[in-house]
Amino acid sequence: MYSSLLSCLNKRKDHLCNPTGWGWVLRDPVVGCFAPALYQLDKEGCIHLLHMERKTYEKLYWQNTAFWIRREHKLRPVLAQLEDLDIDLIPLKGAALLETVYKNIGLRLMTDVDVLVRHKDFLQTARVLLDRDFQPKWAYPSGDLFEFVSLPIEYWPGELSFYNGDGLYLDLHQDLITYHWFKVPYPTDMNMVWARTIQAEELTSENHQQLWEIFLSPYDMLAHMCVHLALHGLQMVKNLWDVDLFLRKLPENWDWKMYIMTAEIWGLKSATYHAFSFCQEIFGTPIPDDVISALKPPDFDRWQVRKLITPETLLADKKTFGKRYPTLVKFALFDNTIKKLKTIKNLIIPDPAWLENNNTNHSIFGHWVHIIRVLLRGD
Questions:
Q1: Which of 3, 101, 168, 247 could cross-link 97 (Cys pair, CB 3.0–4.6 Å)?
Q2: 98 — phi, psi (to 5°)?
Q3: Residue 371 maps to a domain
Q4: Sign of torsion, CA 205 210 213 218?
Q5: How would DSSP label each residue in 298-344?
Q6: Does 274 fall in a domain?
Q7: What is the mean pLDDT of residues 89-117?
Q8: Lowest mean pLDDT across 211-220, 293-302, 341-350
Q9: What is the domain extent for residue 288?
Q10: Per-residue 3-state assignment (H helix, E strand, C coil) for 79-102
């Protein structure tokens, strides 16, 4: 697993004109997220750290390990209470990958813990967290934290964010597509996602006490990682490494036809193709040629993405048009032009019920101003 990371670090190093040593990684804007892993790279003999570098990265690795252990300690009573209430909770992204792919909690930096509950349990779970002194990171002028319930269900927030005051940030999801604007290009069937969930013992083999009871199916887990990258404009190198490691550790019964079908249903073929292509160029990820061919979008769609962002410009940290305005990359990754146009139409002329209850602005003019601001700041 370390060879792919070393490949990425060396490519970034080339763009920096090969600085001596490895101290530069710690504050690098592109690969600084991998700093805790350098301690393990040194232990495995993949790199040679100088004495002070080794002390720095060892300290960072164990701080990262201790930080996750503390978060586990804070999470366990919450999970126990939700289990008593018969509420299922699924870890997403890094929280799931620590036990299933990394199997080393010190390697991966995590800023927050993402979890998924069923829609019917969304409000009850949020209230449990509030009762356990988690602080909400959202608000409405009325003071009612759940003012969104007056909206049609499809316009409810896909996630609610909390902070416990002790380093634990938790994002509670009721949907894998967190913004309703992206439901047209990525029509995810959450009932099907829940029907395919699997028990922890099917993914993990260690004897230590597991934190989580259930996980997404491997096909949905990979699809979610790809859509997450797409919704961030392919700019998160840490999450690209997630995909790389996941693909290097596929289950023995993995069926690529099943995944391609899943990507097609989710509207994710283009997003998956580009996530895979970035992984191949940055980490040397082994992916079958026929899989890449099956996912390959039309020439014009690939041209759009290449004009905005490439693996090379990502590693070089060049301020390309797509780096400055990742919203453009998000649209370029939609599977076809019809979805792009329909999404733009929904943005320009939103549903009156949504606009009336919109926390940002209740007028169509104010909504358009907000869109322009979002585009200019590159959300």
A1: 101
A2: -55, -40
A3: no
A4: negative
A5: PHHHHHHHHHH--HHHHHHT---HHHH-HHHHHHHTSSSHHHHHHHH
A6: yes
A7: 90
A8: 341-350
A9: 2-348
A10: HHHHHHCCCCCEEECHHHHHHHHH
